[in-house]
Structure prediction request, 228 residues.
Amino acid sequence: EAQVTQNPRYLITVTGKKLTVTCSQNMNHEYMSWYRQDPGLGLRQIYYSMNVEVTDKGDVPEGYKVSRKEKRNFPLILESPSPNQTSLYFCASSSLAFGTGSSVQYFGPGTRLTVL
Amino acid sequence: EDQVTQSPEALRLQEGESSSLNCSYTVSGLRGLFWYRQDPGKGPEFLFTLYSAGEEKEKERLKATLTKKESFLHITAPKPEDSATYLCAVHHLSGSARQLTFGSGTQLTVLP
Prediction:
């Protein structure tokens, strides 16, 4: 089954304690992306990756890091989480043909993060 | 500034009462407009992609249309299972980056 998986699904942590949210896709997609979703603000892109070892900032990259060492995985790293990073996070992937009929972004189930 | 605005924020309909959701956008270099459905606690689920003004797509009770400034998602004779948040997203080129900008969504409730 084609899917995007994220782990953990729920996480409660404290300020400053480094954490990693994993994302994996089994569709051989080149393009992967991370979003955060906050009430009234919609989905906002944090980082995206066009392929292995190619990453770039989205709209709200501050306080986040990413890496793309393998095509299927795109972890999101919070080196020193703060309460304003409490949010619902989604990973997404699509083929590189973004903007054509085959370029749909498929989303993972989400990770709800609470930083105390 | 690139912007995507959805209206209304929330919509309550009786079962069978048709209506439309709006997504207006001001972006440079439009490459496509996407509609997604999101159920509580889940990731967005793809519905449609539209690429050029005048294009229309249909799926069951849903029909999406696109003009140069906005898109509409028409819901014909909705059922309670159509209750969800509907998200509009615009794929555009911003500088050298490829970006997908989302609206904040319309929360649809269909009452039996």
Summary: The radius of gyration of chain A is 14 Å. Chain A touches chain B through 29 residues (CB under 8 Å). Chain A has no helices and eleven strands.
